Amino acid sequence: MQKLLLPLILSCILCLPVSGFLYGFVKCPDCSFSLGGILGRFFIGAVHAVLAVLQMGVIWDNEGGTSSTNIWPLTIGVFVVLFIVIFWRMNRNSLKR
């Protein structure tokens, strides 16, 4: 039970910022595919990571805030992936000792 508790807590804490970053990175409307576009995508991803936490997973689509996107399905998927990766890494490290 204790082996599951730490990955569960870390996944809960990290799932919203990571899913917000992924949403912002993929859905950047004005980013091109050059080097400047990649830096712009990282910046928009960082902004959406903060917005996802502040708005609990319902991110604005435009500056006026008239429409929004619910990223909770993405957040649940990110939670499951993070939980599996953290749990696997912790068990792999404990088996080496």
Can you tell me about this structure?
With 97 residues, this protein is mainly α. The protein has one domain (2-96). It contains three helices and two strands, in the order ααββα. It has helices at residues 2-26, 35-54, 72-96; strands at 58-60, 68-70. A two-stranded antiparallel ribbon has the order 1-2. It is elongated, with a radius of gyration of 16 Å. The model has no long low-confidence stretch (mean pLDDT 85).
Short description:
The chain has helices spanning 2-26, 35-54, 72-96, and strands at 58-60, 68-70. The chain is mainly alpha-helical and 97 residues long.
Element string (H = helix, E = strand): HHEEH
Strand order of the largest sheet: 1-2
Please tell me how large the radius of gyration is: 16 Å
Count the beta strands.
2
| Continuous helix count | 3
The major pleated sheet works out as: 2 strands, antiparallel
Task: Find the structural class using helix and strand composition.
Answer: mainly alpha
Principal-axes geometry comes out as elongated
Helix content: over 70%
Beta-strand residue fraction? 5-15%
Q: Into how many domains do the coordinates divide?
A: 1
Distance between the termini: 20 Å
Poorly predicted ranges (pLDDT <50, ≥5 residues)?
none
Mean pLDDT: 85
Key phrases:
about 100 residues, mainly alpha, about 70% helix, two-stranded antiparallel sheet
